[in-house]
C-alpha cells in the first residue's frame, strides 16, 4: 500500500484582480431629506417627509421615546431656528448610545436633512 504524495505548488483563496467583479460605490442616502446624525456612540438615520409635524423614533412617538422635555426641545430646535415647525414629518431610526447622545444624534440628523432639502437657505443658520 503505497501512496503518492503530490506537492502543491501554490494555493490561494483570493480571487485575482482580473477576475474579481467590479464594485461601484453607491451613496449611502440618495433621497433628498434623508441624513445621518452621530453623537457620542449614538447613530440616527433620519428621513424628512412633508407633512403635519409628527415625529416617529424607532416606531414610537417623540414624547414616548424622549419623555424628558429638555430632550424634546433639543430635537425640535432645528425646526424652531428655521421657523419650519409643523411642516415636516420625521421618521428616525436610532441605535447605540444613551438617551442624551441619541437626542443629540437625532438633532444633527434633522439639521443635515434640512440642509439637504435647501442648502442655500439653511446652511448658515444651522451651523
Could you tell me the number of beta strands? 5
Sheet with the most strands?
5 strands, mixed
SSE order, as H and E? EEEEHHEHH
- The CATH topology label of the domain at 49-126 is Ribosomal Protein S5, domain 2
Order of strands, main sheet, comes to 1-2-5-3-4
Overall morphology:
elongated
Rg measurement, Å: 24 Å
Descriptive report:
It is a single chain. This protein is of the alpha+beta class and 127 residues long. It has a domain at 49-126: 2-Layer Sandwich (Ribosomal Protein S5, domain 2). The chain has 4 helices and 5 strands; from the N terminus they run ββββααβαα. Strands 1-2-5-3-4 form a 5-stranded mixed sheet. Helix 2 (69-82) packs parallel to helix 3 and helix 3 packs antiparallel against helix 4 (119-126). The radius of gyration is 24 Å and the shape is elongated. The mean pLDDT is 85.
Amino acid at each position: 500500500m503505497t501512496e503518492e504524495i503530490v506537492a502543491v505548488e501554490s494555493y490561494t483563496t483570493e480571487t485575482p484582480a482580473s477576475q474579481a467583479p467590479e464594485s461601484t460605490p453607491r451613496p449611502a442616502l440618495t433621497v433628498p431629506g434623508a441624513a445621518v446624525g452621530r453623537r457620542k456612540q449614538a447613530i440616527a438615520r433620519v428621513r424628512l417627509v412633508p407633512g403635519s409635524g409628527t415625529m416617529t423614533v424607532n416606531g414610537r412617538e417623540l414624547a414616548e421615546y424622549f419623555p424628558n422635555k429638555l430632550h424634546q426641545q433639543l430635537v425640535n430646535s432645528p425646526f424652531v431656528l428655521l421657523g419650519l415647525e409643523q411642516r415636516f414629518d420625521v421618521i428616525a431610526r436610532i441605535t447605540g448610545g444613551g438617551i442624551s447622545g441619541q437626542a443629540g444624534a437625532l438633532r444633527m440628523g434633522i439639521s443635515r436633512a434640512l440642509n439637504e432639502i435647501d442648502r442655500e437657505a439653511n446652511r448658515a443658520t444651522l451651523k
